[in-house]
Backbone:
């Protein structure tokens, strides 16, 4: 867990995108490459722990449709269902994240963060894109 947090911190600072990797005098490039997280792992970390409440809290572990809550209004049962997101095309996914609408929080994610989350969540789609 500490390695993931450190990697996210370094990634945010841009160190992981440096043209020449930082390395200790006795480290090989393979040892350095193994120490860093993949873009998909970065996306997974953002999905679970973005800037406030995690996507996982409402969209579930894999971005499937989720019953968030049920309540009764005027003697009728109502459900709040969070839509499936792991089957969206990238343009739709990005567009939804940039809107400030409904109960979905606006996270003000960077393009790089949106790309990473999309990479992670779309890898969890078990059916063809609709």
Residues:
């Amino acid at each position: 867990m500490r390695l993931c947090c450190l990697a996210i911190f370094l990634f945010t600072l841009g160190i992981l995108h440096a043209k020449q990797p930082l390395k200790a005098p006795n480290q090989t490039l393979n040892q350095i490459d193994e120490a860093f997280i993949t873009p998909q792992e970065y996306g997974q970390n953002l999905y679970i722990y973005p800037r406030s409440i995690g996507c996982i809290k409402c969209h579930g572990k894999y971005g499937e449709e989720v019953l968030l809550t049920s309540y009764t209004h005027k003697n009728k049962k109502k459900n709040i269902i969070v839509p499936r997101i792991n089957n969206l095309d990238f343009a739709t996914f990005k567009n939804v994240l940039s809107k400030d609408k409904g109960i979905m929080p606006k996270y003000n994610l960077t393009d790089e963060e949106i790309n990473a989350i999309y990479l992670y969540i779309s890898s969890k789609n078990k059916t063809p894109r609709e």
